[in-house]
Specification:
The protein is 48% helix and 17% strand. By secondary structure, the protein is an alpha/beta fold. It is globular and about 60 Å long. The protein starts with a helix and ends with a helix.
């Protein structure tokens, strides 16, 4: 969120260019089905629970003006290119993703990845405090990356898929409680300090994903705790490898 707010125009321009290039290609190859991932920040900012029929019912949250606006543009592109070029596009809306291979970067990572990074550093350096950006109150939904990949593969091959579909767990957790769960998995026993100089963004985001089961045959199978165990272990291994490389 911090990076996106600082680079609103850059994020918007880069994503719109990528979208136009992709749809230009699809318009020349109409037999290819395009699966178009959409971040759920493109939903109206005043909503806390996201249903497909509400996508255009309000404005996006100002904190995601660039990225959320670009993802809304890609949904408009889907509609326009379907009408003019008869292309097949499946817009798949996803919540925040996490898992092995995510950013080990406190600035560009999502809240979960940034917390994993800072908590693991605190464990290794025996720090007594970890800073959490924002108040800790925002409620977010997290989807394990392999679950998202499975949904995208299904959307690419299932017969008669929905044009627009939410993929999510339906569960959500506050950032403060998420930090506590990561701490438990990582073995961190120190305190958290909430830095409210950082923005919170929208108060709550949660997906309603019944259409995913009906239209794609997809439902979640990895719990947040199970996914965190895999994510923390992967991050721990990569941090150790990076330190060894520096020492060499």
């Amino acid at each position: 969120l911090a990076y996106s707010r600082k680079k609103q125009a850059t994020v918007l321009a880069d994503n719109v260019r990528m979208t136009l290039s992709l749809f230009d290609f699809i318009s020349k190859n109409p037999t290819i089905r395009l699966v178009n991932p959409i971040a759920n920040c493109a939903y109206p900012g005043e909503l806390s629970s996201f249903r497909e029929g509400d996508f255009w019912s309000g404005s996006i949250h100002e904190s995601v003006l660039g990225y959320g606006g670009a993802r809304r543009f890609s949904v408009l592109a889907s509609q326009a290119y379907r009408e003019e070029f008869a292309v097949e596009v499946v817009d798949v809306v996803l919540p925040n993703l996490y898992g092995p291979g995510d950013h080990l970067d406190a600035v560009r990572a999502h809240a979960l990845g940034g917390l994993v990074f800072r908590i693991l550093v605190a464990v290794e350096e025996s720090l007594e405090e970890v800073v959490v950006w924002g108040s800790g109150n925002p409620i977010r939904e997290w989807l394990y990356v392999e679950e998202a990949a499975r949904a995208l593969v299904l959307a690419s091959g299932v017969e008669n898929p929905p044009d627009f579909v939410n993929v999510g767990t339906g569960d959500s957790i506050s950032i403060a409680n998420l930090a506590a769960m990561i701490a438990e998995v990582a073995g961190y026993t120190g305190d958290f300090v909430f830095d409210t100089s950082f923005p919170d963004g929208a108060a709550e985001k949660r997906m309603e994903a019944e259409r995913a089961l009906e239209g794609l045959g997809w439902s979640p199978s990895v719990s947040l705790r199970e996914g965190l165990i895999k994510t923390v272990q992967d991050a721990r291994n990569r941090l150790a490898a990076s330190r060894e490389a520096v020492e060499l």
